[in-house]
Amino acid sequence: MGGGGGGGEKDVVDVEAVVVGAGIAGLATALALRRAGVVRDGGGVVVLERHAELRATGAALTIFPNGWFALRALGVAHKLTPRYEPYETSVVTNLESGATQVFRFGGHRSRSGEVRVRPVHRKALLEAMAEELPPGTIRFSSRLASIGTEPAGDGSSTEELAVVRLDDGTVIRSKVLVGCDGVHSVVARWLGMSEPASSGRSCVRGLAVYPGGHNVKKELRQFLSHGLRAGMVPISDTDIYWFVVNNTISAGKPKCLE
Questions:
Q1: Most exposed residue of 1, 73, 176, 209, measured as fewest CB within 10 angstroms of its CB?
Q2: Cα-based distances in Å from 84 to 27, 60, 217
Q3: Where does the record place a coiled coil (predicted)?
Q4: Is 255 part of any domain?
């Protein structure tokens, strides 16, 4: 899928699709392109990741039934569901009034059984998707130097190819370029898209690990106050995923937490 390059170029690679970013979105996009038959087997899609390895660090996330149906279509759900038990309830406590409400998550029935809400480690999700891609699909330590276009074929067509140049001199030409490179996306900037809009919230999340076990009931616990939301949910017998969400505070208007 490549050829010799001139003009100081290390290599010239021709593929059908380039995905920038090997996070959840990038790996899912590459898998979807292959599953749908949009790209050929054996190197039709390449995923560019600027880090030296898969960024499998991070906390966890809760996946609802529609997400599990998507993971089924990608061919990875069966790797994850045996490892993570579903949970059915969310207990929400208002810290100002003391009132507590219990909500129940519904499932969706399918031919292979009921699909329910489950939490998963982000690391496990990334690794499950990466394992389904052919070796060499993800090109690590690949930093973009520039993005451009050039005419496809002999120039008689109006079609264009995306031309991605990496800082090591590699040139990758593709019919499709997909940006999955996060909030400061290089691809989005090249396309002229506007800067990301603030959600008005900030969030801290993490994992609490109890080597001897935590004995916490498998349900989502949430605590609400003015402008604040905190929660936790066990994702295994030893790990508890937790998060704190805070409404963005404007400069000059500090808020004291009691």
A1: 209
A2: 21, 12, 14
A3: none
A4: no
What CATH number has the domain bearing residue 161? 3.50.50.60
Task: Kindly tell me if the per-residue pLDDT of 3 is higher than 90.
Answer: no
Confirm whether 156 is domain-assigned. yes
Cα–Cα distances (Å) from 131 to 6, 137, 171, 181, 236, in that order, read: 34, 10, 26, 20, 22
CA angle 79, 230, 57 (to 5 degrees): 40
- Is 174 a domain residue? yes
Please name the helix (run of DSSP H) or strand (run of DSSP E) that holds residue 218, with its range, or none. Answer: none
Q: Are residues 67 and 102 in the same domain?
A: yes
Instruction: Domain of residue 6: give its range.
Output: 2-53+140-190
Place of tokens 């508890």: 240
State residue 7's pLDDT score.
Answer: 45
pLDDT band at 4 (very low <50, low <70, confident <90, very high): very low
Domain count across the chain: 2
Contact 238, 210 (CB under 8 A): yes
pLDDT in tens, 49-58: 999 999 877 8
Is 201 part of any domain?
yes
CB atoms within 10 A of CB 118: 20
CB 241 within 8 A of CB 60: yes
Total count of residues recorded for the chain: 258
